[in-house]
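Before surveying the methods themselves, it helps to consider a single example record, giving the amino acid sequence and backbone structure tokens:
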Amino acid sequence: QVVLVSGHLDSWDVGQGAMDDGGGAFISWEALSLIKDLGLRPKRTLRLVLWTGEEQGGVGAEQYYQLHKENISNFDIVMESDEGTFKPSGLGFTGSAAARDIVKEIMTLLQPINATDVYDTADGTDISYWMRDGVPGASLHSDINKYFWFHHSQGDTMTVQDPNQMNLCAALWTVVSYVIADMEDMLPR
């Protein structure tokens, strides 16, 4: 059984793609790194996917889906960060009402960083195939007030990234992915 965390590695024509979506790739990598460094071993596999070709029609995500869809019942949740890694407020979530209740309970663990909100739907080109077929999905919600200042521009460089805010996003991603991966049962569909 798999809990999938992800971001994508494709900048648009200009800039470096540090925020869109290097930040999402980084916090996904960092979540698994933190769990490993803490010596935690969840019941389910935590899998990192760094998608490619999102801006070119999601071709990397479609290929991955085609290669793994026969095991769809083993995917517990798919998580994607693709709206910057600014100060997090919570998660967008797509799934059953019972799964949403569980995710809301998990999010209470993030009260110390004030990132407990659960929004109505998860967004993410790269996880849309899975959610369409009933796999619960989650997307990072962060303060996107400055997102379009840099999105697909020459300004999308590492200087946009705030290490403290990225650490908060990584903390949220780590807590959610680990707790779901270590629960007794998979999220209800």
